[in-house]
Amino acid sequence: MDAEQEVISVHEDGRPDRPWIADGSCPVETCGTVDSRIYAPPPMNLVFPEVVPGDALRISASTFQNWKRCPGNAEARLRGLHPPESRHSFAGSLAHRLFKRHLTDGPIPEEEFAMVCRQEIGSTNLKFRLAEAGLRKMSDLEPLFDEARDLYRRFRMLPAGGFREGEVSLEHPLPDAGITLVGVVDAVFEDDGGVRLVDWKTGGVHDPEAQMGFYAMLWALARGELPAAVEALSVRSGEVYRDTPTWETARSVAEEVAEMVSSLRTAWERGGDADRYGGPWCSWCPVLEECPEGQTASRLLD
Ligand code: SF4
Q1: Mean pLDDT (whole number) for 149-159
Q2: Closest CA to 210 of 14, 47, 73
Q3: How far, in Å, CA of 107 to CA of 199, rounded?
């Protein structure tokens, strides 16, 4: 440790405790020998904006992403409606379990693959989703395991250095707003630059900006620090979306989430529904059958 460093103390936020060092000289003159990190600007914090009061809501990244596409879709999910389970989504969920197992317990030997799949289904809520996905017979499982095996083989080719945690649950209650922000990040990596939040896609990457922006905002609120990067990665195609969040972008996402909460509560207070905008997302909307806008969009896009 240099002599100058010994006599300069700093506040927790990095500001020098006093501008002059013990021998009376100005620390600016000694900046070549003082660790520059002690002069780093204080960390910014994130304050969630005020919202229209109303019933308690749990807001997830997918709620926000769906609201950005169509407010009616987010409204349906907040009311507890969800699209029916499909074999494809079931295989994706199983593959995510295998990814986490690989990173925490090591590679899955080929001869144990089917047994591990059965273990993952039997020990998680996947077992309750089998029937809804139309997977009623043992013979239905073989093609399902083949799809999961293909995704797992592709996953094993991805770099895994710096892995810290898998399936990280984040929850940040905001009692004054009457909402709780929630999310599950597939994996957290620690690189030289800091923490990187990763979401693995078993299909295409599509438009992950809202989802990944929500994760960055939620991480900042729950952990008090910004992630250095957020990443959505298609295991199937190798396509990658990567962004470097800033406090400004996190604040901007928080403002949009607050706007979502206020606009939905205002619509409900007036006895109305949220606006509906049709698009490709209608095909996995839980209220498609009763939504004229969605049915028109589906006809035009088919
Ligand atoms: S079907 Fe389409 S337009 Fe209708 S609420 Fe759902 S996403 Fe919106």
Answers
A1: 95
A2: 73
A3: 20
Nearest to residue 214, comparing CAs of 199, 204, 203?
Answer: 199
Listed by start position, the domains of the chain span 3-39, 57-83+164-265+275-290, 87-156
Instruction: Name the residue of 65, 70, 283 whose CB sits within 8 Å of the most ligand 1 atoms, as the mutation to test its pocket.
Output: 70
Ligand 1: atom nearest CA of 72 is: 5
For residue 69, the CA-to-ligand 1 centroid distance in Å is 9
Q: Where are the beta strands (DSSP E) in 147-193?
A: 163-174, 179-191
Q: What is the pLDDT of residues 239-282, one digit of tens each?
A: 999 999 999 999 999 999 999 999 999 999 999 889 999 999 99
CA 67 to centroid of chain Cα atoms:
15
What is residue 170's three-state secondary structure?
Answer: strand
The CA-atom distances, in angstroms, between 197 and each of 93, 190, 228 are 18, 9, 8
How far is the centre of ligand 1, averaged over its atoms, from the C-alpha of 150 (Å)?
A: 32
Report the separation in Å between the CA atom of 284 and the middle of ligand 1, taken as the mean of its atom positions: 9
- Atom number of ligand 1 nearest to Cα 76: 5
DSSP string, 6-43: HH--B-TTS-BS-SS-TTS--GGGGTTTS-GGGGPPPP
CA of 285 to the centre of ligand 1 (A): 6
Q: Cα(172)–Cα(192) distance, rounded to whole angstroms?
A: 27
Determine the atom of ligand 1 nearest the C-alpha atom of 277.
3
Strand pairing report for 57-60 and 163-174 = unpaired
Assembly ipTM: 0.99
